[in-house]
Write a structure and sequence with these properties.
This protein is α+β, with helices and mostly antiparallel strands. The chain has helices at residues 14-23, 37-45, 49-57, 75-85, and strands at residues 2-8, 30-34, 63-70, 95-101.
């Protein structure tokens, strides 16, 4: 098993990704709002009046991180779903995907 982690730079791509995962047999995931280091540092420096205007004009400050425990043979399905719904992660400001081995889990059924 694997824990697949998908970090999206923009929340606007989340619904399409989730639909793509379901269509490719991924039945469960946990989603949290997230913010990258560069954006967090930018926010910390933007307490000025101009920073406030920038935040008002560009309210998209958070992305999403999706966690899902999947079977080893589903990694390619997740990658395919990402390419079809989000786009090419090698492009700037799209996001990242990675997996972590999972040795033990309770409470998940794969049937």
């Amino acid at each position: 098993m694997k824990l697949v982690v998908v970090v999206l730079s923009e929340d606007s791509r989340l619904q399409a990704l989730l639909q793509g995962l379901v269509e490719n047999g991924i039945k469960g995931a946990t989603i949290i709002s997230s913010q990258g280091l560069a954006r967090a540092l930018e926010d910390a420096e933007d307490y000025s009046f101009l920073g406030s205007i920038k935040a008002f004009l560009d309210p998209q400050q958070y992305g999403s991180t999706v966690f899902s425990v999947i079977q080893d043979n589903q990694v390619e399905l997740v990658s395919k779903a990402i390419k079809q719904t989000v786009g090419d992660l090698s492009q700037p400001d799209m996001g990242i995907m990675f997996t972590i081995p999972v040795d033990y889990v309770e409470g998940i059924r794969f049937d």
